[in-house]
Amino acid sequence: MATPAQAELRAMISGKTDTEIADLMLETPGGFEGVLDDTIAGMRDAFDPDAAQDCIVGYEIDSATGTYACRIEVRGHDVVAEQREPSDARVVLQLGVAEYLRLITGLVDGTEAFMSGRMKIRGDIMFAPQIGRMFRTA
């Protein structure tokens, strides 16, 4: 089940083009970085400890203002999410900001995004589907 923040974000971006989503982010206080900071902080709320596997997951999210890198560490039933290079990540998901927002709100499936070329995966590609089990979307 989605968190309230995910549900609100999903409603905001559903049916919108990449350009429309980018425009929404620019109009939001804090811009791209503020929205991404909020979504990364929200990983704690979306975390399902029953599906947890110890790991480090990285995201490299491209926006009009540059690449936003973050690192999500799962240890036991705890998750620490922070903005920083995910150099020690088991897997890194590389995607644009619109596709990232669609992914975390459940509007797009990770496999679909990867197969269509909208998301690249660096590292343990076989582990990547586990991320969707550890963090709830819609």
Give the topology:
Layout: H1 4-13, H2 18-27, H3 31-41, H4 43-46, E1 55-63, E2 66-75, E3 78-82, E4 91-96, H5 97-104, H6 110-115, E5 119-123, H7 128-134
Parallel strand pairs: 1-4
Antiparallel strand pairs: 1-2, 2-3, 4-5
Helix pairs in contact: 1-5
- Tally the structural domains: 1
Order of helices and strands: HHHHEEEEHHEH
Query: Strand pairing plus helix content: what structural class?
Result: alpha+beta
CATH superfamily: SCP2 sterol-binding domain
Distance between the termini: 6 Å
* CATH top level label: Alpha Beta
Strand order, biggest sheet?
3-2-1-4-5
Total count of helical runs of at least 4 residues: 7
Please mark out the parts with pLDDT under 50 across 5 or more consecutive residues, or reply none: none
Q: Report the CATH architecture.
A: 2-Layer Sandwich
Q: What's the short version?
A:
Helix content is 41%, strand content 25%. It has seven helices and five strands.
What does this structure look like?
The chain is of the alpha+beta class. The protein is built from seven helices and five strands, in the order ααααββββααβα. The chain has helices at residues 4-13, 18-27, 31-41, 43-46, 97-104, 110-115, 128-134, and strands at residues 55-63, 66-75, 78-82, 91-96, 119-123. A five-stranded mixed beta sheet has the order 3-2-1-4-5. Helix 1 (4-13) packs across helix 5 (97-104). It is globular, with a radius of gyration of 14 Å. The mean pLDDT is 93.
